[in-house]
Amino acid sequence: MNMMEKQAELGKSLYEINTGVMSEMAELSRKNIEQYFEVNRTFGEKLPEVREIGSFMSLQREYGETLWNNAREAMESQNAILQNAFTETRDAFQSAFTAENVTEAPKKAAKKTAKADA
User: Fold this and answer.
1) Fewer CB atoms near the end CB (10 Å): N or C, the chain?
2) Within 10 Å of residue 114's Cβ, how many Cβ atoms?
3) Rounded to an integer, what distance in angstroms lies between the CA atom of residue 92 and that of residue 11?
4) What's the CA gap between 110 and 98, in Å, rounded?
5) How crowded is the C-beta side of 43, counted as CA atoms within 13 Å?
6) How far apart are CA 85 and CA 93, in angstroms?
């Protein structure tokens, strides 16, 4: 494969990686927003049942923990998508810029320098 074909293949690979990542991120964002609205709806339904400050604080703590866990899971999912994208991009660049059938030139022996005796 000549250099022009490799560069065309690299462009195609990068385009596919980018479109795949963007669609995965959009789908993940959609799911996160739906989950956020569902959590708010669920806790909003529980709010009228609260009659004392202790149960309100408990409900608030549970709500905060739920939001935190959902946000953490979303970040972990985003990190996994991005790590996969970086790996695929690295592989695409390596395949585009590695030469086929490259033979190394023989290395010259290092010259020994004589040190003057003091």
Assistant:
1) C
2) 5
3) 9
4) 28
5) 18
6) 12
CB 117 within 8 Å of CB 45? no
Token couple for 9: 């293949």
Contacts of residue 78, defined as CB under 8 A and 6 or more positions apart, other chains included, come to 25, 28
Report pLDDT for 103: 43
Distance CA 76, CA 33 (A): 16
pTM: 0.70
| Residue-wise pLDDT tens digits, 1-46 | 688 888 889 999 999 999 999 999 999 999 999 999 999 999 999 9
Residue recorded with tokens 């309100």: 56
The token duo for 106 is 């023989």
Q: Which amino acid is at 100?
A: E
Give CA–CA dist 43/64, Å, rounded.
Answer: 11
46 Cβ partners below 8 Å, 6+ apart?
59
Helices (H), 1-118: 3-46, 53-97
Whole-angstrom Cα distance, residue 97 to residue 53? Answer: 65
